[in-house]
Amino acid sequence: SFFQMNTSSSRRFPGVSRTLSSGRSAPRRGKNASRTTNTSVSASNILTPVFASIMEGRSSARGQIGLAAINLTTMDFHLFNFVDSSAYSLLKTQLQVLEPVEIIICDSINERNSNAVLHEAVRSACDQATISAVQRRYFDGARGHEMYRLLRARTDPNSKLENSTDKELCLAAFAALVKYIEHIEGFIFATSSIRITFHEDDALCVMDADTWENLRVIDRTSSARGKDRRTIFSMLSSGTLTVTGARLLRASLLQPLADEDEIAARADAVEEMLEKPHLLERSRSLLACAQSIDSILPVIVKKYREKTVVKAEHRIVQLVHLRQTLQLVEKLRQLLPNFVSPIIAVKADTLLDDRIEEIRAILDETLNIDILSLNGRKNSMDARNQKIYAIQSHLSTALDVSRRAYEELLKDLHADTRELDECMPEQNVQLAYSASRLFHYLWITHDANRVPVPPNFINVVRNKASLTFSSRHLMRFNDRIEQSVCEVMLESDDVISEAIDAIRPHVEVLYTLIDTLSTLDFICALVVYATERDTVRPSFGGSVIIKAGRYPLLDVPGKPVVPNDTYLTPSSHFALITGPNMAGKSTYTRQVGSLALLAQIGSFVPAEAASLPIFKRISSRVGQNDTLAENLSSFAAEMTGMAGILASADARTLVMVDELARSTSVEEGIGISYAVIEELIEKKCFVVFTSHFLDLATLDASYAAVENFHFAPQVRQTSDGEVLDPSHTLYRGSYSGPLYGFEVAELAALPSSMLVRARQLAQRLHEEWKTRREEEEEMMETREILRCAHAFRELLRHPRTTTTKANLLQLRARFLDVVRARNAVEIGEDED
Ligand code: ADP
Ligand code: MG
């Protein structure tokens, strides 16, 4: 065999060492999906186990990286080749999008330590994943190419890979991944059954994990902690009805489009549905019936070496499910031609594909539709019979025979009343069936608590008005019946396998159908959002021009959010924002980022008007304000983050920087800020930069690109004097007011009288500070002289010791300096 099996554990991969693993076993997210009980699609139940494989280039291909990944639920393979200088950061981002539970890498990387960079990138991107090293020989590009041709669904339009040699790396990673999955999951991939997408020059916008976090795009931590924070994803996904739609939404939010036509295609569809609400309504009622249509794919793709009853039952259920899904196609065929927007209208044609009918025909020939369409209340016996009779008769003699055996057994069981007749004559005892207890006796009687049960009956369970029990005789029957049911299932599985083999050549059409439904669901979710909020369709151009934009996550009905404009042009592309605490600086940076993000997934945006460039990159960094002990590391992290942004920033980058260098000293912070700002200006990227270093505001004098903005507090007159309220309104120009933090204190429930007093004090101090600064130089000198005089008097009071003498001499020198500087009366050196 390709691998020599390790006998100690079938889950082990020969030649695999998990030395790089973090020790914890990775959570299999897919298995937890059932925990969420609400019907809306949440972040946690769209994540399914993803496996990834990485191959690094050597010698001439050094610095290039190939990545292959598969989602074991959707059976979607994705191949990536990263070639340019940012290969590692692109790999990291892609891993963060994929969130694999396990990553396999070539074990030679493990041996020569030179590849710490890759290891570090992988570890930092997926600290939860298990990393397994696999022998180098499995990373075979030529073999990967062969597998690609063999496994991919026929008529896959994505044939870019043919005749190409520069895809070596990802094909090598693919080869190893296929073998690894087959080995540890215990199935083989059926030929011509999987969709393999090759990503090369995808026009996508790059964001990184910090930016997702800062912009609240998605909550990557809460599923572990069990609470869902509000995110842009949660805001939009409440409008999705299918898991595949939510998955598309998630992928789009993490990697928005960067191609104007693709964005316009989505926005066109959103706009159309906004204009024709009946289309939205019909689409949504249809989607509500299409819960998880992709669960059929693993059934078609996976081929197991051995049959089991559980798998057989699962396959039957899935085929029945598929049959029901295909019923949606008819409705879709009627619905989709009503759309004008190409992105949806084009899908209408895919539904005319003959292969859909062929699959339906295969299912109709195989499945016993009458039995399966049994509606209404079903007892456990009906449910079981549905499975037993799911397959039509006369398709397999063996199946028919096993079913007859089952029927005979049931007949025998019902006829065999000897036991009851002998031991419990004239009692209301009958045979009953439940899924957990199987066949048992049920005795309905008022005295269920007390009536004696003859000793040959066992497993007595007394309820209020009935009691149940069994007997050895009955249990033997149960055993035989169960055995017979298993035989029926295994025989059914042979028929199912044949049906699946027949369906497989047409599987491509199922991928298309899933795409159609998920696109429709995704667009509907955007429409739901656009309907519920006051939004506008953004246009695209060379500048960021947003009129009355609102931060989407604060923009909830009933709570007033203060709208703000944004205006950034190629010549004035740097907005420097100052203002007091709690004014809304951070919120504003998130607002600009979120609006750009929404615009690039094809969504409408919460604003009165919006025009934006299409960004290739959206990056956001937030300064940490940690405790002193952590300062150094958070500062270092901040600077590394900034360096990462600077390395790839250009005129098509949007950068949000919030309170850079907050945890360091003022001098250092200002110095670093200057340096970073100059670099950002040089790179010509669009920047929203907030800072509490008011001195930075002078930058607009030296750089035409910099424009100052500030959040000014609102002055409110109260009986206790003036109170400053944050207005959350952005003004042009730099800020010169006080830096207050009282809202924070209010949250901490300080008495309001104290706050009023504190505000007054702060204001007075601020005024004093201002007047002091305005004082004349002369005043300052006079004051210094007075200070000297005061010191003289103090010293003269003390007895003359040597120290006072020295102090006196020092003071005299200082005094002379001041006076000389003032060009006052000449005082002789010798005068004592
Ligand atoms: P800063 O970064 O200036 O300290 P934040 O952005 O953290 O301020 O905002 C402080 C508080 O003000 C937050 O609780 C936020 O909800 C609220 N806020 C900020 N901007 C707005 C706005 N435009 N409209 C309404 N509330 C806002
Ligand atoms: Mg802030």
From TrEMBL:
One of its GO terms (molecular function) is ATP-dependent DNA damage sensor activity. Coiled coil: none annotated. The keyword DNA-binding applies. It comes from the Eukaryota. Residues 1-11 have a biased composition (Polar residues). GO terms for biological process: mismatch repair; reciprocal meiotic recombination. GO terms for cellular component: nucleus. InterPro entries: DNA_mismatch_repair_Msh2, DNA_mismatch_repair_MutS_C, DNA_mismatch_repair_MutS_core, DNA_mismatch_repair_MutS_sf, DNA_mmatch_repair_MutS_con_dom, MutS, MutS_con_dom_sf, P-loop_NTPase. Residues 1-39 are annotated as: Disordered. The keyword DNA-binding applies. Keywords: ATP-binding, DNA-binding, Meiosis, Nucleotide-binding. PROSITE patterns: DNA_MISMATCH_REPAIR_2. Residues 653-669 form the DNA mismatch repair proteins mutS family domain. Pfam families: MutS_II, MutS_III, MutS_V. Belongs to the DNA mismatch repair MutS family. This is DNA mismatch repair proteins mutS family domain-containing protein. It comes from Pristionchus mayeri.
